[in-house]
């Protein structure tokens, strides 16, 4: 049954936006669940932790509702604290040389071995294959976010049967017969839908969406996040799918269906949709499906000011936010309601300068979700949708 809540409008956003107060350094927002999950895990991220291809491991160290992350494996950063590597703040998750060291630190064999690298190939290397088989032999279940489905491999299937463990191929889509095409029922979702898009892949869209969802909920505004990638699903997202494995004909419909499920089950005040890739990036078609499937009334755009070229594409310069905003608003009937920054290779004063400069240039609120108060993210949403949930927030 469709909800009767009146549909909000963001058409008055640029008339009502009041520039936020001067930027101050705030305590970093916490993404750690208040209660530790029951399932323990070691995350493998050899040679990539804290880097772009380690985004699954990076995300799990910052936030995991499903697993208690005991440690990370990366010989290049062994001996360090994972939180200090990512955010200059210790979190008690150690980085170890190899699986033996990680197991020696644990009081028992962990429940799960999570493959935390997201290589462009989407496939295991021969050395990684042997390591995963060893983890299975030790009695660890496997979480696999690659495009390669390990359950389809006879050697892995036999090893799991002998060890009585399972492999979770996170990216495996539903059976073809169950996939949905776009129906237009997204119009029944009358709460605001906000997509967190970006100017590149691996730029922090999921992290920003997660921080925003938590900040809204802590303020009493019920927010539900729709995950569209493997990392969010591994973190424990209740609603979502790995969109890049769904046949293109069904991408918009499958996302629409997930949003409707969340709306009907949760009765949220706002729905946040995690973006993938970039609309302007020719290598990532899922961005267009996210916009089409969710029909967002608002968009938060994530950008890395110091990133010179697209990930894995040295000859492809990064777009500037104004160009991406124009493309998004031309492509769909929506408004970009704010810009969020990825502060890679930036000092704090440079972040402040970028925030001020982009606000003056673009006329929209700008912040950095990881180094500035999450209230600035909340302000973006409330400036655009002041009547969320039928109440006026100030």
Question: Could you walk me through the main structural features you see in this protein, from its secondary elements to its overall organization?
Answer:
With 394 residues, the chain is an alpha/beta fold. The chain folds into 2 domains: 13-26 and 177-390, 3-Layer(aba) Sandwich (Rossmann fold), CATH 3.40.50; 39-169, 3-Layer(aba) Sandwich (Rossmann fold), CATH 3.40.50.720. 33% of the residues lie in helices and 17% in strands. It is built from 13 helices and 15 strands. It has helices at residues 13-16, 55-62, 82-87, 99-105, 126-137, 154-163, 205-218, 230-235, 248-266, 286-294, 321-331, 348-362, 375-384, and strands at residues 39-44, 67-73, 94-96, 112-115, 141-144, 167-169, 193-198, 223-227, 239-240, 270-274, 298-303, 309-310, 313-317, 335-341, 366-367. Strands 9-8-10-7-11-14-15 form a 7-stranded parallel β-sheet, sandwiched between helices. The protein has a 6-stranded parallel β-sheet with strand order 3-2-1-4-5-6, with helices on both faces. Helix 2 (55-62) links the parallel strand 1 (39-44) and strand 2. The two termini are 31 Å apart. Mean pLDDT is 90; it is low at 1-28.
Reconstruct the topology from this structure.
Elements: H1 13-16, E1 39-44, H2 55-62, E2 67-73, H3 82-87, E3 94-96, H4 99-105, E4 112-115, H5 126-137, E5 141-144, H6 154-163, E6 167-169, E7 193-198, H7 205-218, E8 223-227, H8 230-235, E9 239-240, H9 248-266, E10 270-274, H10 286-294, E11 298-303, E12 309-310, E13 313-317, H11 321-331, E14 335-341, H12 348-362, E15 366-367, H13 375-384
Parallel strand pairs: 1-2, 1-4, 2-3, 4-5, 5-6, 7-10, 7-11, 8-9, 8-10, 11-14, 14-15
Antiparallel strand pairs: 12-13
Helix pairs in contact: 9-10
